[in-house]
């Protein structure tokens, strides 16, 4: 999401209301990212809460407003991975499936759910790269910043991640038709 | 189409987002980080869910925390004065102890005794103290999991701090709930476990208790507006309890000001006639309907730890207005306003023009 750089600059220099507005704009994406890692609402909320706190405490360290989204996303991913390490527990996909199916049992939802499950089962690196590319709409360069790796590695992760998803789901990849990820 | 259409975006958008809870978490985070509370260990309460249902279905004893009833409760072991442990950093907590009621609930499970000691509700937040005692020596990682909830509140509602003390843990919990009309509120807490780095002891504890709100005097209506440089602060009313002073005010911004500036935030500082200066952290702000500008906000804020000897309390409003220049560094300026003095004895108020602003002594970390 592209934010008003002025608002980000204001947040960096200590305008708490500006930061609050920015976090509210990002909340859905952050929560869904967190949820994809930890797979339950309570823990996703906790990851979200820790992300918000960390953002408030360290916003002043952000040098360039242009990096706000990648900076915030990195905080969220780190918090989620830390939560996973702490818990080390098995993710019960069936439960997630039931919850969503209760809302709408259409075939399309079920298919998307398969995608979500398949994505959830990928290793962290593939999962992170794919979410950042196709959900956050980050460029390869931005993903490299978030994941702290070379751009070439990001492309490899996206290629392999997609290949794994396709193999597991035997489907046609929709996001790719709309955008070249290079 | 052959096979399924794979869309990560669509799949992720199916994840249900609890928007209200996320908003509440954000607001809570800003509220809590407005005060410097870093030394103690701190945990945030998870959002409360379906609180009223839990209350109705419960058969656990509900204690009305009146002093009379409390006297009937068994004496519980006390590990020092819990309020005192936490009052070093937090102004006004010792007054909270003075006016708090004994709760005196204590339960033991799997060798762990959890006791709720005292509780107080000042119309903005419920504060209660607890202790945890164990036969085993507890290290600094030990803390309780499972958060207390307020049956009247929704969403994430406060924070907990704890410290290891001899014989166990002493803790203090705060649950925010701004409702000056509520005569009492109900706290429910089912600690799940005592967590330590070396293991987790799960137990069966359940507490429910009511906390009466400290008596409010009738609110003093101020209806006093002060203006400077296109920003006005309108003092609405002030209410008093034995331990806190709550003030409601609005910031109103001339639309023309926002042609040059972007953000406005009006705050208060308070000083009593003895020279004590108090921070006035706000509990939260909202944009009222029908506002002329996006920067028009209504605030409530609370002074804690007011000296009992104080005869007057003066509120000094100031605002930061800021913008980001087209190129280069951001720009900000501070404007100050006339102050409003409250006569705490006579319950009157008066305007002080061109006041000398007091300075808040920052606490050393």
Automatic annotation (TrEMBL), chain A:
<dbReference type="InterPro" id="IPR039425">
    <property type="entry name" value="RNA_pol_sigma-70-like"/>
</dbReference>
<dbReference type="InterPro" id="IPR036388">
    <property type="entry name" value="WH-like_DNA-bd_sf"/>
</dbReference>
<dbReference type="InterPro" id="IPR007627">
    <property type="entry name" value="RNA_pol_sigma70_r2"/>
</dbReference>
<dbReference type="InterPro" id="IPR013249">
    <property type="entry name" value="RNA_pol_sigma70_r4_t2"/>
</dbReference>
<dbReference type="Pfam" id="PF08281">
    <property type="entry name" value="Sigma70_r4_2"/>
</dbReference>
<feature type="domain" description="RNA polymerase sigma-70 region 2">
    <location>
        <begin position="27"/>
        <end position="89"/>
    </location>
</feature>
<dbReference type="InterPro" id="IPR013324">
    <property type="entry name" value="RNA_pol_sigma_r3/r4-like"/>
</dbReference>
<keyword id="KW-0805">Transcription regulation</keyword>
<dbReference type="InterPro" id="IPR014284">
    <property type="entry name" value="RNA_pol_sigma-70_dom"/>
</dbReference>
<dbReference type="InterPro" id="IPR013325">
    <property type="entry name" value="RNA_pol_sigma_r2"/>
</dbReference>
<keyword id="KW-0731">Sigma factor</keyword>
<comment type="similarity">
    <text>Belongs to the sigma-70 factor family. ECF subfamily.</text>
</comment>
<protein>
    <submittedName>
        <fullName>Sigma-70 family RNA polymerase sigma factor</fullName>
    </submittedName>
</protein>
<keyword id="KW-0804">Transcription</keyword>
<dbReference type="Pfam" id="PF04542">
    <property type="entry name" value="Sigma70_r2"/>
</dbReference>
<feature type="domain" description="RNA polymerase sigma factor 70 region 4 type 2">
    <location>
        <begin position="114"/>
        <end position="165"/>
    </location>
</feature>
TrEMBL record, chain B:
<feature type="transmembrane region" description="Helical">
    <location>
        <begin position="44"/>
        <end position="63"/>
    </location>
</feature>
<dbReference type="Pfam" id="PF18705">
    <property type="entry name" value="DUF5643"/>
</dbReference>
<feature type="domain" description="DUF4179">
    <location>
        <begin position="39"/>
        <end position="134"/>
    </location>
</feature>
<keyword id="KW-0812">Transmembrane</keyword>
<keyword id="KW-1133">Transmembrane helix</keyword>
<keyword id="KW-0472">Membrane</keyword>
<feature type="domain" description="DUF5643">
    <location>
        <begin position="221"/>
        <end position="344"/>
    </location>
</feature>
<protein>
    <submittedName>
        <fullName>DUF4179 domain-containing protein</fullName>
    </submittedName>
</protein>
<dbReference type="Pfam" id="PF13786">
    <property type="entry name" value="DUF4179"/>
</dbReference>
<dbReference type="InterPro" id="IPR040680">
    <property type="entry name" value="DUF5643"/>
</dbReference>
<dbReference type="InterPro" id="IPR025436">
    <property type="entry name" value="DUF4179"/>
</dbReference>
């Amino acid at each position: 999401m592209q934010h008003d750089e002025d608002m980000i600059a204001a947040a960096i220099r200590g305008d708490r209301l500006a930061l609050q507005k920015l976090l509210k704009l990002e909340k859905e994406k952050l929560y869904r990212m967190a949820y994809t890692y930890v797979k339950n609402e309570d823990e996703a909320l906790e990851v979200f809460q820790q992300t918000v706190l960390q953002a408030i405490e360290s916003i002043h360290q952000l040098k360039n407003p242009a990096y706000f989204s990648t900076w915030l996303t990195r905080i969220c991913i780190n918090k989620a991975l830390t939560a996973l390490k702490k818990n080390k527990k098995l993710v019960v996909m069936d439960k997630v499936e039931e919850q969503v199916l209760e809302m709408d049992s259409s075939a399309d939802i079920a298919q998307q759910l398969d995608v979500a499950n398949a994505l959830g089962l990928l290793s962290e690196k593939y999962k992170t790269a794919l979410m950042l590319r196709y959900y956050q709409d980050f460029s390869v360069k931005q993903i490299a910043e978030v994941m702290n790796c070379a751009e070439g590695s990001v492309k490899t992760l996206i290629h392999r991640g997609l290949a794994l998803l396709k193999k597991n789901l035997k489907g046609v990849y929709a996001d790719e038709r709309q955008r070249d990820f290079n | 189409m052959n096979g399924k259409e794979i869309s990560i975006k669509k799949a992720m958008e199916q994840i249900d987002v609890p928007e209200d809870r996320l908003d509440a978490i954000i607001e809570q985070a800003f509220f809590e980080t407005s005060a410097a509370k870093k030394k103690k260990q701190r945990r945030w309460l998870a959002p409360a869910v379906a609180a009223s249902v839990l209350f109705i279905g419960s058969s656990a004893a509900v204690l009305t925390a009146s002093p009379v009833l409390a006297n009937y409760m068994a004496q519980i072991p006390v590990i020092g004065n819990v309020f005192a442990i936490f009052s070093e950093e937090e102004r006004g907590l010792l007054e909270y102890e003075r006016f708090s009621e004994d709760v005196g609930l204590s339960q033991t499970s799997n060798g762990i005794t959890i006791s709720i000691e005292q509780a107080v509700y000042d119309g903005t937040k419920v504060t209660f103290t607890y202790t945890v005692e164990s036969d085993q020596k507890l290290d600094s990682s030990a803390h309780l999991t499972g958060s207390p909830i307020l049956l009247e509140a929704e969403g994430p509602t406060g924070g907990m701090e704890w410290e290891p003390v001899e014989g166990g843990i002493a803790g203090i919990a705060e649950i925010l709930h701004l409702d000056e009309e509520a005569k009492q509120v109900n706290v429910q807490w089912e600690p799940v476990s005592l967590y330590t780095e070396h293991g987790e002891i799960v137990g069966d504890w359940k507490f429910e208790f009511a906390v009466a709100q400290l008596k409010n005097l009738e609110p003093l209506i101020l209806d006093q507006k002060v203006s400077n440089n296109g920003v006005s602060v309108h003092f609405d009313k002030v209410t008093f309890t034995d331990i806190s002073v709550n003030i409601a005010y609005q910031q109103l911004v001339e639309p023309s000001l926002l042609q040059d500036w972007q953000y406005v935030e009006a705050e208060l500082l308070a000083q009593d006639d003895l020279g004590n200066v108090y921070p006035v952290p706000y509990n939260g702000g909202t944009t009222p309907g029908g506002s002329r500008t996006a920067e028009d906000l209504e605030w409530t804020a609370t002074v804690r730890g007011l000296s009992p000897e104080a005869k007057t309390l003066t509120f000094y409003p100031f605002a930061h207005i800021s913008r980001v220049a087209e190129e280069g560094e951001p720009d900000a300026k501070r404007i100050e306003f006339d102050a409003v003095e409250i006569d705490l004895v006579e319950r009157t108020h008066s305007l002080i023009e061109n006041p000398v602003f007091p300075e808040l002594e920052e606490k050393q970390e």
